[in-house]
């Protein structure tokens, strides 16, 4: 099942960058911004999101830390990747999160989006989790947040074969409960 994640309750580590991968834009309203991968968390609820393959966005029990900072992400089950931000208390709504990616196997889908709140007192994360083989397509993936017609952030990820970065996510899924 395709799952978008967001939770409401920096530091960028250099990694080898693919052409065009990494932070493309950051609005000054964002006090911190971190991006990369983390182990998938079990959701506690979901909200409708008609412009996504799953037709919903999963809600997380907490805002996860980015465990593997940077734009390189293996296409493997149990991995989530995204953008973690803090706004210093500023709350923004409605924020549109857009995800562009290579065509999914079978459906050909290349774009998904949903509306959320960004900011507040705690960190926010907007992320994508790999659940189905059809969505584990290598290539350039972009996550963009828009508020009031302006780009808050745009981050480009290079999704690669798991054997390219075997240490990322090697222990994910051992304690995961669907």
TrEMBL record:
Q: Where is the DUF3859 domain?
A: 66-159
Q: Name one Pfam family in it.
A: DUF3859
InterPro entries (alphabetical):
DUF3859 (IPR024331)
Q: Does the keyword Lipid biosynthesis apply?
A: no
Spans traversing the lipid bilayer: none
In the UniProt record, does the keyword Signal occur?
A: yes
The signal peptide, as residue positions, is 1-19
Keyword annotations of the record: Signal
Highest taxon, organism lineage: Bacteria
Q: What is this protein called?
A: DUF3859 domain-containing protein
User: From what organism does this protein derive?
Assistant: Seohaeicola nanhaiensis
């Amino acid at each position: 099942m395709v799952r978008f994640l967001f939770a409401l309750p920096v530091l960028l580590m250099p990694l080898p960058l693919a052409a065009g991968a990494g932070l493309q834009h950051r609005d000054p309203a964002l006090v911190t911004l971190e991006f990369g991968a983390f182990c998938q968390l079990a959701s506690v609820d979901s909200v409708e999101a008609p412009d996504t393959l799953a037709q919903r966005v999963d809600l997380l029990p907490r805002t996860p830390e980015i465990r593997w900072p940077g734009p390189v992400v293996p296409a493997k089950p149990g991995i989530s990747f995204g953008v973690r931000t803090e706004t210093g208390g500023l709350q923004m709504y409605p924020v549109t999160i857009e995800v562009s990616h290579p065509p999914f196997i079978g459906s050909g889908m290349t774009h998904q989006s949903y509306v959320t709140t960004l900011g507040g007192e705690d960190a926010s994360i907007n992320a994508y989790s790999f659940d189905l083989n059809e969505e584990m397509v290598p290539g350039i993936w972009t996550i963009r947040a828009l508020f009031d017609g302006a780009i808050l952030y745009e981050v480009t990820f290079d999704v690669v074969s798991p054997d390219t970065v075997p240490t990322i996510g090697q222990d994910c899924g051992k304690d995961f409960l669907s």
